[in-house]
Design a protein that fits this description.
mainly alpha, 3 helices, rod-shaped
Length: 93
């Protein structure tokens, strides 16, 4: 869903760019070259968007994994700073 929204946004902006070129650039060869550049930018931008979304999803999955968090904390020796999940209740006298 996010990818399709991002792709639609990119298409909308690039369609506007193409329209500007076809409207104001009267030299056919130059206009064709500019349209090719815009199409290349479109493909590149969509690839970057897809890669960014996939990377973010991978990191989110990784960092929400509790086992990864425990391994990360213990590998840096930070166990003493992390509160334990089991609480022993002491009754006040």
């Amino acid at each position: 869903m996010i990818k399709s929204f991002a792709h639609d946004t990119v298409d909308m902006v690039q369609k506007g760019n193409k329209q500007i070129v076809t409207t104001f650039v009267k030299h056919e060869g130059l206009a064709d070259t500019m349209i090719q550049v815009i199409e290349s930018q479109t493909k590149f931008t969509k690839d970057v968007v897809d890669s960014s979304i996939d990377t973010f999803a991978s990191f989110t999955t990784l960092f929400t994994n509790k086992e990864f968090g425990k391994e990360l904390v213990s590998s840096y020796g930070l166990d003493k700073f992390v509160p334990t999940t089991s609480t022993s209740s002491k009754k006040a006298k």
